């Protein structure tokens, strides 16, 4: 017999419970060809490997919502799939940058296909630089010239690049004067005026002016993430260290709390000193720089590529394997897990097997499963699903739906790994309730879009297709 005082609570739970058929759906798919150029016209010259310095490729290493239908996307350290010099792991002086993309999401009224159409448009390319001097490789003993990009001399600017020898061997990989930078995770600040980007070489987390690309802050990460013996060859660097991040598997993902006060970075793979498939999450208080570390244990994926905030304590983690389009195989593991940092154990002073302190996790979305259900075979699913960002809400069949954008990294080899893809998934409050979570969108103040900045500076004197903005030596190009 049900007590009369409990009856109202039970009835409320019954009628507020999510429908049993509630599920996360694929709403749209869009793409940008990786065979075209981005908007940084001054980088169009050939790199050391014979590839144009402004090739548009691999821009889904990180994806961030910037308000309305605007997103920021990060290519990683540049095209290094073309063999030319193993002494630098085939990396080049490709200038680090981020791309600004307008996502045109509109209802599909054709009666066939997905519920929405997605048309991504590249509207700006912003190069990343430092207002202070950077250390570049001399090229000595590598059969190469200096690692400084030619644009440095032309613009009087210190640009970050992907070339692996751009470091000071006398200091640790945490040296913020190193010119080598491998952008991965990206998020937009609460005021909309800057972006935070995490990297794999340091690992580093830098804050850049969104309008100019100039670095304005470097966060001090825990020393146990850095390596002390540096090399331009990743394999050599791995063999030379017992503590710190594994080469090319540094801070792969970056989230920001909805209030814009805390960054949450995640390593791609276990540190040299850690075991049992445990990777580290690092929280950073933006105002004070204070950090904490937590353990995340991989389930079936070989690494983590991204993390995105659901609210101030719950996050989605992108765990994946390396299989799929681009690898010549079929995708298997591309899964988003829900985690909660509430009450998590700080593992800052620990090493070895962190399993006992690892955060609990629950499967939230099987990306492969949903794409398969929509007729996309596993061999056509990108191997590197890496970018995650919530976008603007939409209405689907009368139900308010949150949009979750998922992007791939095609490693600058569109002919092998396909175009830059953007998948939009619809997540309802019923889906979130089923998963035991709630969603709070990040609050971002509106700022002028890149083409508006260019117009403000240059008036009506724009020439050709692109406009250039320079401040403190940094440069942004945007479409008219």
Describe this structure in words.
With 480 residues, the chain is mostly beta strands. It has one domain (23-479). The protein has 7 helices and 27 strands. It is globular. Keywords: Signal. Residues 56-412 form the Phytase-like domain. Residues 446-470 form the Ice-binding protein C-terminal domain. InterPro entries: Ice-binding_C, Phytase-like_dom, WD40/YVTN_repeat-like_dom_sf.
Largest sheet geometry: 6 strands, antiparallel
Q: Which range does the strand content fall in?
A: 25-35%
Cα distance spanning the termini: 71 Å
Number of helices: 7
- Can you tell me the number of structural domains? 1
Please identify the structural class as seen in this structure.
mainly beta
Report the helical percentage. Answer: 10-25%
Oligomer: single chain
**What is the count of β-strands?**
27
- Name the average pLDDT: 90
Low-confidence stretches: 1-22, 452-474
The spatial strand order of the largest sheet comes to 2-3-4-5-27-26
- The whole-angstrom Rg is 22 Å
Q: Judging from the principal axes of the Cα atoms, what is the shape? A: globular
